[in-house]
Write a structure and sequence with these properties.
It contains six helices and three strands. The chain is mostly helical. It folds into two domains: 11-117, Arc Repressor Mutant, subunit A (Orthogonal Bundle), CATH 1.10.10.10; 121-149. A three-stranded antiparallel sheet has the order 1-3-2. β2 and β3 (91-95) form a beta hairpin. The chain is globular. The relative contact order is 0.10.
Length: 149
């Protein structure tokens, strides 16, 4: 019996993604952040002082979700909202010194966790996996673009 692509690709991808998020949340708990918050903080550490709209696109978060995440990060003094001099109706999002310190601590920590996650998988297989993931992402982006037009 042939397994459907829905089950062999779709369900397997969702299951793996959830497991990665679950284990990362366990390891991020002592830092008082979640994987969702980490992805925003990491993005800000790479592109500081950007509009919420830009951050939404770069972090791949919808506006409502991003607003909630930013509220939590701001509450812990990891980010701050700054009035946008180019547009008084919007804010620029900036990472604070405390947020920068956290990214410097968490980044290498997560690299070690991912080393454990990929343990036993050779470089060639990992490169192929990343290539396939990028191809899937491009195909999905094309389908979304097609639906939005």
């Amino acid at each position: 019996m042939v397994m459907s692509k829905d089950k062999s690709i779709g369900s397997a991808s969702v299951r793996t993604s959830k497991k990665i998020s679950r284990i990362l949340n366990v390891y991020l708990k002592p830092f008082q952040i979640t994987t969702e918050q980490w992805s925003v903080l990491r993005t800000l550490s790479e592109s500081d002082r950007i509009s919420q709209k830009e951050l939404s696109e770069l972090a791949d978060k919808d506006q409502a979700t991003l607003t909630k995440i930013l509220d939590l990060l701001e509450k812990h003094d990891f980010v701050k909202r700054i009035a946008n001099p180019a547009d008084r109706r919007s804010y620029l999002i900036a990472i604070t010194e405390k947020g920068t310190e956290l990214t410097k601590e968490v980044g290498p920590f997560l690299e070690d966790i991912f080393s454990d996650i990929i343990q036993g998988i050779d470089e060639k297989s990992l490169a192929l996996y990343q290539e396939v993931l990028l191809s899937l992402e491009r195909n999905i982006d094309a389908l979304l673009e097609k639906e939005n037009n």
